[in-house]
Design goal:
Layout lengths: L1 E7 L5 E4 L1 H11 L4 E7 L4 E6 L3 H14 L9 H4 L2 H9 L3 E7 L2 E2 L6 E6 L5 E10 L1
Antiparallel strand pairs: 1-8, 2-7, 3-5, 3-8, 4-7, 5-6
């Protein structure tokens, strides 16, 4: 089963906890044990697992901005001025594989699935493949 999650973003850089949305798709699937593969097809978005705490999310923003600053004269900027977004996405990942137990993601106490919008605002899609095993 493959499910699609629509994510309308509102800012150029935005970090969104999509854990409840993924767990909702797992509930819809009826699968109690298995694996969820979560994937974004956009080259200026990413996924990661970490704590959904506002201070940490601001630290992530500042870390990526300092590591890959906007407007540094990247060659790709001649096309559409978003090279920094592409480069930041390379540091993260377009996909995650997470076990499912008791009908929900098997995450640690403080873990959440975070969707990173790096070139918004836009309408984005995340795909969730749910496999029983």
């Amino acid at each position: 089963m493959i499910f699609e999650i629509d994510i309308p973003t509102r800012e150029e850089f935005e970090l969104i906890d999509i854990t409840p949305l993924v767990n909702e798709k797992i509930r819809e699937s009826g699968i109690k044990e298995g694996i969820a593969i979560i994937f974004t097809r956009h080259t200026t978005t990413a996924l990661f697992i970490n704590e959904n705490e506002s201070g940490l999310l601001e630290d992530v923003r500042e870390f990526l901005q300092s590591l890959v600053p906007k407007g540094k004269g990247y060659r790709h900027d001649r096309i559409d001025s978003n090279a920094h977004s592409h480069l930041r996405s390379i540091l993260l990942s377009p996909s995650l594989a997470i076990p499912i137990k008791d009908g929900k993601l098997l995450l640690g106490t403080w873990q959440s699935v975070i969707f990173a919008e790096l070139d918004g605002p836009r309408r984005r899609k995340v795909f969730v493949k749910i496999c029983e095993c």
